[in-house]
């Protein structure tokens, strides 16, 4: 059984490790980061029969939203218990073609992690084997499979105009274009694929990679303060989604990563219409979003639990809200959920969900749209902080470690000349 969203989180966690491994090294956190990623990849491997070469069905996440306070049906919405005390049934769902997104997220996470663990050849090969098998179920993990294997067939596919068009790569007028998260990984895929330009791809890849570069540049323009794609509060980019702080963190990460790519390719900047911008403009944007999250905002409140002098105290989290020595029943835990007292356990480092459109915040446990932390939000937060940290720029030896040197085919000869 695989939980939807864990694949996306694992992929985001792994990305900065092989893009900016030296920054983790400088912070003394590389072993810790690898351990966090391996926890997720081991979970995936344990949910998969490793000798399989094809799959036809998947068992997806625990079904939720079956009950409510009024229904009396014990489930993850109705009950409020510490995870280790759960004693009610948690049915899972069997799905076939509709699980393609879940399979793709798992495949991308495993292929990405294979680069992180490239020095452990047996483990890395196992990750690639499962990633390839899942890819046959859903192909949107193709970019990470190319970087994980160096197989040019994946590069051929990911740079096909047909696939890019079906993925919405040319729909920049879409209101969600440029928002990276659970529902769309398009921007991340484009940003990652255009990195291949650094190896001088040549014909026939350069045209589509250049298009990905240009489309990514359009999104980076939209992040800057003098453009109006994403409106701004007093410091925060507005995505228009519920729980938007995860979007803020992910935007900060991708902007810092794009800045690193520009620096690594000795590219001085890019154009937004007639105006020219440098990597520093993107770093300034990323820092402004991190500053907002960490306390430089109208409420002077850090939205990362445990950081700073003031931070949320009623986080919507069952384990944090129930005392460690208390084993509560399904309904017995409601008294902790509904309490107006601070959480007895501080969930250090958790990024809460949101401030509203006017920078307001409700530190109320039952207001989950404000106080609930998410895996993807914290993955983006850590990635952004690492990308903005010192200790080197893009680690080409990491991201390109599986890609062999090859000479691209020559362009077709010109038509025969006749006088």
From TrEMBL:
Output the GO biological process annotations, alphabetical, semicolon-separated. cellulose catabolic process
- Pfam families reported in the protein's UniProt record: Glyco_hydro_9
Q: Which UniProt keywords apply?
A: Carbohydrate metabolism, Cellulose degradation, Glycosidase, Hydrolase, Polysaccharide degradation
Catalytic reaction equation(s) = Endohydrolysis of (1->4)-beta-D-glucosidic linkages in cellulose, lichenin and cereal beta-D-glucans
* Gene3D superfamilies to which the protein is assigned, alphabetical: 1.50.10.10
Tell me the enzyme class. hydrolase
Glycoside hydrolase family domain sequence ranges: 20-139, 143-385
Q: Which family does it belong to?
A: Belongs to the glycosyl hydrolase 9 (cellulase E) family.
Q: What is this protein called?
A: Endoglucanase
């Amino acid at each position: 059984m695989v939980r939807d969203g864990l694949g996306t989180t694992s992929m985001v966690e792994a990305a900065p490790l092989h893009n900016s491994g030296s920054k983790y090294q400088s912070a003394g956190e590389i072993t810790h980061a690898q351990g966090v990623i391996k926890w997720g990849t081991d979970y995936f491997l344990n949910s998969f029969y490793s000798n399989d070469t094809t799959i036809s069905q998947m068992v997806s996440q625990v079904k939720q939203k079956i009950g409510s306070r009024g229904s009396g049906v014990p489930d993850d919405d109705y009950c409020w218990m510490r995870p280790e005390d759960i004693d009610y049934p948690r049915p899972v769902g069997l799905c076939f073609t509709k699980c393609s997104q879940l399979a793709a997220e798992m495949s991308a996470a495993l292929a990405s992690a294979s680069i992180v663990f490239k020095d452990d050849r047996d483990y890395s090969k196992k990750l690639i084997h499962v990633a390839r098998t899942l890819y046959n179920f859903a192909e949107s993990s193709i970019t990470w499979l190319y970087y994980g294997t160096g197989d040019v067939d994946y590069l051929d596919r990911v740079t096909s105009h047909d696939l890019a068009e079906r993925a919405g790569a040319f729909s920049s007028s879409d209101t969600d274009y440029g928002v990276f998260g659970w529902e769309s990984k398009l921007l991340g895929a484009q940003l990652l694929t255009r990195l291949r330009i650094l190896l001088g791809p040549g014909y026939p890849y350069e045209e589509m990679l250049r298009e990905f570069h240009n489309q990514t540049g359009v999104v980076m323009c939209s992040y800057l303060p003098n453009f109006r794609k994403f409106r701004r509060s007093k410091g925060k980019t507005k995505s228009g989604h519920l729980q938007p702080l995860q979007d803020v963190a992910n935007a900060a990460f991708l902007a810092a990563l794009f800045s690193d790519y520009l620096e690594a390719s000795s590219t001085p900047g890019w154009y937004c219409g007639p105006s020219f911008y440098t990597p520093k403009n993107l770093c300034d944007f990323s820092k402004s979003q991190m500053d907002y999250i960490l306390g430089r905002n109208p409420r002077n409140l850090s939205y990362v639990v445990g950081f700073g002098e003031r931070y949320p105290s009623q986080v919507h989290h069952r384990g944090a809200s129930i005392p460690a020595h208390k084993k509560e029943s399904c309904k017995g835990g409601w008294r902790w959920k509904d309490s107006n007292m601070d959480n007895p356990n501080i969930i250090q480092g958790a990024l809460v969900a949101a401030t509203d459109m006017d920078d307001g915040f409700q530190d109320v446990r039952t207001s989950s749209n404000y106080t609930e932390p998410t895996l993807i939000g914290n993955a983006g937060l850590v990635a952004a902080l690492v990308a903005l940290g010192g200790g080197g720029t893009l680690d080409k030896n990491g991201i390109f470690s599986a890609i062999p040197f090859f000479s691209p085919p020559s362009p077709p000869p010109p038509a025969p000349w006749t006088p």
